[in-house]
Amino acid sequence: MSDASQKLIFAAAAGNLEQVERLILKEFADVEAKDGDGQTALIAAARAGRLKVVQRLLELRAGIALNAMDASGRTALDHAVENGHKEVVAFMTADVSLLNFSQGLMPAIQRGDEKSMSLILKAAMPTDGQPWPSWADVNMRDVRGQPLLHAGVKSKRPGLLSELLRQPGLEVNSQDRYGRTALDLAVANGEEEMAFLLQKKGAKSSDDLED
């Protein structure tokens, strides 16, 4: 990493907007560069709650990797949510095409991060019978067609799965591209506690669904 790129990450974290602009425009710092922890300037700014820096980074570099992950598997949005930076979260999620919240929810569950998952679900909780917003849909799927619930089973964290199962509108019998339900997966993986939690919520095996 160049010296300018390293300074850019520090400046972004510190909220030094003037230095951020100078490093990008005059010293040609690489906005995609990562430090030893895998942080980009955008991640550093979001993690520290530097709203103006986040906005300016997106203005200066339209093609910036919005959902790059650091060494812990967290995106810029994950860090903003986890650290309670509501203004940054609001900006990032105001336009779904800008920073899709689902990019934070699925990775949080895949890495077994109960805290981040809880914060995201709390922020997106629908009211008055409204559906989940598309950026935090509990029935979302990843690029391979895996439902969020299946990712919860694979996390091997019963507490995480239990909280996910409490969310309104969750489809407990959704199937992946192989036709497996979350209960099928829990049984196949020997996750007895998870299987019990799923059955309490009415989850069925794919064989039972066919009957």
From TrEMBL:
Positions of transmembrane segments: none
Pfam annotation, one family: Ank_2
Coiled-coil annotated residue ranges, if any: none
Keyword Repeat attributed: yes
SMART domains on file: ANK (SM00248)
ANK repeats: from-to residues: 37-69
Keywords: ANK repeat, Repeat
Name of protein: 2-5A-dependent ribonuclease
